[in-house]
Amino acid sequence: MRRPKAFGFDVFGTVVDWRTSIARESAGFLARIGRGDLDAEHFADAWRARYQPAMAKVREGGRDFVILDTLHCEMLVDLLRHHGVDVDALDPALVTDWSHAWHRLAPWPDSVAGLARLRALAPVVTLSNGNVALMIELSRRAGLEWDAILGAEHARAFKPSREVYLSTAAACGVEPNDFCLVAAHHSDLAAARKAGLMTAYIDRPMEYGGASAPDRDQRQDWDYEADSLTALAAQLEVPK
C-alpha cells in the first residue's frame, strides 16, 4: 500500500471525545438552569442525534448552507424545548456559550502525538463538518496542529456530500487517490472511498460510551485500520 500524500481528518469522535466533553459541560449548564434532574450523558447523546437530521436539510436543498455553530445552537434549543425548558426565558449569552461547548472538546489521549507524527510524513488538514472558527478554537485548546482548516465551510456543503471530500483534496493540491480520509466512522469512510479517496479507520469504541456505533453496518475493508493515531503512524512507518 502506497503512502498518502496528504491526510484529511474527521474530527468529532476521531480526534476528540465529544461525548465525555459535552456531557461534562451540559451537566454544569443543566444545574445552572435548574434542570440537574436530566442525565447529562443522555442529553449529550440526544444532542448528537440531531446532528445528521439538521445537516440533511442543507444537503437535500431544504435550506441554504449554514455553519455548524448555527446548527448546534438550533439543536440545543430544540432539545431544551423537548424537555420543557422555556428557552426564551434563558439568557441568550448562556445559550450561545452552551452551544459553543463543541469548541471545547478534549482530544483522545493519542491524538496530539499521533497527529504530530503523521504531520511529519505528509500535510494534515481537517476534513470536518465543523466550521472554521469552531475548529480553530477547538484545536488551539486541545493542542492540535493542522496545516489547514478545510472541510464543510470551505466546500459550502456537509459530509457525506462528494464535493466536501474532493474540494478538500483539491485545496491540498493532491489527487483524490493520493488523499486519505482518517475517520472513526464507516459511513464517512464509505462516502470518501466512493469519491476516490484512500481510507484509514480509527477504532474509537468509547465514542458512544461503549454502545455500538450507528453506522457499523457500513464497515468495509479499509486501506488502513488502527486503534489510535499513533498506531496508524506506526503502520505507515513514521518514526516516533
UniProtKB/TrEMBL annotation:
Q: What's the name of the protein?
A: Haloacid dehalogenase type II
Q: One Pfam family for this entry, by name?
A: Hydrolase
Its signal peptide is: none
Lineage, broadest ranks: Bacteria, Pseudomonadati, Pseudomonadota, Alphaproteobacteria, Sphingomonadales
Report which superkingdom the organism of origin falls in. Answer: Bacteria
Keyword annotations of the record: Hydrolase
Q: Which InterPro entries match?
A: 2-HAD, HAD-like_sf, HAD-SF_hydro_IA, HAD_sf, S-2-haloacid_dehalogenase
